[in-house]
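Practice problem: predict the structure.
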Amino acid sequence: MLRPLIIWGASGHAKVLREAVHAQGCNVVATFDNAAGTRPPFTDVPLFLGKHGFAVWQASRPESHAFAVVAIGGDHGRDRLELQEFMASKGVPPLTVVHPSAFVAVTALLGPGCQVLAQAAVCADAQLGAACIVNTSASVDHECVLGQGVHIAPGAHLAGCVEVGNFTLIAVGAVVLPRIRIGRDCIIGAGAVVTRNVPDNSVVYGNPARVVRNTLKNL
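Answer:
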């Protein structure tokens, strides 16, 4: 019997997750989004708006023991974790998603609600905090430690023993060399090559990557 699953976030990432969770025996029964006017990502699955919509769905749903995933990526890791924790507090726990084409080492540790997507790799003794995304064809090598809400975007690669702080985005195609420490709330730009440690709240670009501004200015 398929397990009922809800997806918060009605973007293209929801479509990616629906394909991935099918192999884990899950059936998507509802989607949610915070933005008024959002179009449903699926013609056969209802869309509800915000936490009020969640309450309406939960009050009327026939399903029991549903699970949840959050389809919000990019540099919104804090939002992803907060929504995951909200749904868990309402009795809908997070599902950890591993695409059937992905590799996760037996010694790797995945926190609640992590997503390891198509052709991605999480290698020996890596540790991922809650609500991390390792996106399409990305890799997290041996002994890396990722905080909560980290997003490793498509085609990005972390070499061994890299540390990444909470809510940091490693953007498409970026490369991080071994034993680098990247702080929390950082954005590592697309295609960047990170050769030195990166302090908290930094936006870095280039090869070699350099700090170009502070994320605190965007708050």
